[in-house]
Amino acid sequence: MSFKLDQLTVRHLTGGQAAALHALDLVVDQGEQLALIGPSGAGKTTLLSTLACAHRPAAGTLTVFGLAPWALSQQARHTLRARLFLAPQTPPLPPRQRVVTSVLAARLPHWSLGLALRSLFKPVDPDAAFAALSRFGLGDKLYARVDRLSGGERQRCSLARLLLSSADAFLVDEPISALDPALARITLATLQQEAAARNATLVCSLHQVEMARAHFKRIVGLRDGRIVFDLPREQVSDEMIAALYENESLDAAPHQDHEPPERIAVGACF
Amino acid sequence: MAALSLHPDPAWRGRLMACAIALALLWPALVYSEFKPWILFDLQSLAAAGGFLRDFARPAHSLEFLAMVLRETWITVAIATAGLALALLGAIPATLLVSERLSISRLGTGRIRPLAAFVRQLVRWVLVLLRSVPELVWALLFVRVVGLGPTAGVLAIALTYCGMLAKVYAEILESSDAHATEALLANGSARLPALLYGALPDAAAELVSYTVYRWECAIRGSAIMGFVGAGGLGQRMDESTKMMQGGEVATMLLMFVLLVGAADLVSSMLRRRLG
Fold first, then answer.
1. Are B143 and B230 in contact (CB under 8 A)?
2. Mean pLDDT of B33-43
3. B contacts of A79 (beta carbons < 8 Å)
4. Separation between Cα atoms, residue B238 and residue B223, nearest integer Å
5. Taking the CB of residue A212, how many other CB atoms lie within 10 A of it?
6. How far apart are CA B160 and CA B129, in angstroms?
7. Does residue A52 or residue B2 have the better pLDDT?
8. CA-to-CA distance for B243 and B261, rounded, in angstroms?
9. Strand partners of residue A36
10. Torsion region of B140: left, alpha or beta (phi above 0 gives left; psi -120 to 50 gives alpha)
11. Quick one: pLDDT band at residue A202, thresholds 50, 70, 90?
12. How confident is the model over A86-92, as a mean pLDDT?
């Protein structure tokens, strides 16, 4: 079992400490692939960063790979983080870095400091970076600088980093928000193939409901920090989707204090 | 006429008050600092200064003197470079300790462990102490301890600049974009690699240009410390000034202009490479 959430409540770390997720129950088996859908501000990003041990829950129990991360020592928890890969929605790539270095950064948890330093001067394993980038059609960008890439290319570049990590679970936040439909399909398929090939769990938040239903067997609908449904895709009806997104435009006002995703994604460390 | 205007500026009264208060505060300062500019125009001192300044137009250029200047310039550059290198040895670890960006305990909780917070604060205080004592005072102290000569200058620069560099390095790192570093930390990377791969690529140009600027300051600083006997071009300049040898002072000042110009060149070159 990868993740087990039992009555898990998560609060924002700043502001009024408003609850972002209310008493969630969720079980995700190892190797399972599920899509997380729901309107903006539903708590998808917070859920993903909670699963990545980058956001401490306020109440309830969280079990990751059979361990309770927040009962572990800081060191053990940080070791556990290396088994989870969180890909934030905004690609976390420094603009002045070369693509090869950005992608190889996935290996950092397993590298000694000496190796990390050496790789800054001469990339340690450019072939692996090339292979990962090629799967997203970016092989020719290996030695380009990140600020020369387009938004969609950066997004795929940060997913190429995911391929190089040794994680047993991928937590991906809106991986296709900057991609055109054709690229989006290929990208999702690549992610799913990789997860299946290494029997890794894949939790993927998506705004494109049709994509979620076409690619994922299990769909979890989230709204206002609560799980509205958690069903195999065959049982998700159009009415349920409509209800999930109902009044989304009117709901926009209360979400003003919603933190930018890159902040939530790493547990509001600022 | 402000009073007759149909649309009086509401800020006008406040500005007037601010000027009045500034003057009221400044006046005692001028009195206590014995600021008497008219002494400048005293005939006797004008004549002395005039002679000194006239000599400036003819920089000393005898071969023997130029060789001495070059030798002393070399010592000055060496003092500044060695001092800065020693300062970096202390500043880089201190930066890593002080920077909150690299806290793993804050990850997910938004709070830093009390012990870690205490260590950070302690290092901060040490840095404040190091840079609040002027380098000239450190130099005077070290001249007593290790005797006249460049060693005192090197140690004085190392201590003061360690405090300055660590503070500004930490601030540069903390004002750069946190997203990349934090994503690496969240994915299980250790602190130092997260810094190297997340924050450094974007902060490198600024860090380098600040370091080169500090090197330039260290050259100037070592000149001043030369006046208290800490070696280098400054010590010679002190001697020449006391002997009213304007030409010699002019040559040495030209040397400083060249050095600062060179530092500027190096800085812009490095920035272009890193930008």
1. yes
2. 77
3. 188
4. 9
5. 24
6. 9
7. A52
8. 28
9. A205, A220
10. alpha
11. very high
12. 92
Greater model confidence, A95 or B2: A95
Contacts of residue A85 in chain B, CB cutoff 8 Å?
A: 187
Closest CA–CA distance from residue A216 to any residue of chain B (Å): 24
The CA-CA-CA angle for residues A72, A161, A132, to 5°, reads: 135
**pLDDT of B230 above 80:** no
What mean pLDDT value characterizes chain B? 85
The reported pLDDT for the residue numbered A248 is 64
In this predicted model, which residue has the larger pLDDT, B234 or A156?
A: A156
Closest CA to A177 of A153, A193, A155, A202: A155
- pLDDT exceeds 70 at position B88: yes
What are the tokens at A214? Answer: 């076409």
Residue of A nearest to B111 (CA): A269
Minimum mean pLDDT among A17-31, A175-189, A238-252, B130-144: which range? A238-252
| CB within 8 Å: B189 and A86 | no
Q: Give residue ranges of B with CB < 8 Å to any A CB.
A: 103-110, 113, 177-180, 182-190, 192-194, 196-199, 201-202, 204-205, 274-275
Task: Name the strand (E) or helix (H) holding A187.
Answer: helix A181-197
- Which of A78, A86, A100, A145 to mutate against chain B (most B CBs within 10 Å)? A78
Angle at A62 between CA A61 and CA A68, to 5 degrees: 100
Mean pLDDT to the nearest integer, A48-58: 91
pLDDT at A266: 47
Q: Cβ of A46 under 8 Å from any chain B Cβ?
A: no
CA angle A166, A172, A174 (to 5 degrees): 155
Q: Tell me the count of A-B CB pairs closer than 8 A.
A: 123
Q: Which of A40, A47, A49 minimizes the C-alpha distance to A20?
A: A47
pTM of the model as a whole: 0.76
Per the listing, tokens 């939530």 go with A264
Residue A253 has pLDDT above 50, yes or no: no
What local confidence, expressed as pLDDT, does residue B4 receive? 66
Contacts for B60 with CB less than 8 Å, ≥ 6 apart: B245, B247, B248, B250, B251
Q: How confident is the model over B235-248, as a mean pLDDT?
A: 84
CA-nearest of A82, A77, A86 to A111 is: A82
How many angstroms away from the CA of B191 is the closest CA of chain A?
A: 10
A74 interaction partners in chain B (CB closer than 8 Å): 104-105, 113
What six digits make up the tokens of A146? 């990140």
Coil, helix or strand at residue B111: coil
Which whole number is the average pLDDT over B174-191?
88
A267 and B194: CB-CB below 8 Å? Answer: no
CB contact under 8 A, B204 and A165: no
CA B167 to chain centre: 12
Q: CA-to-CA distance for B172 and B210, rounded, in angstroms?
A: 10
Instruction: Quote the DSSP letter at residue B13.
Output: H
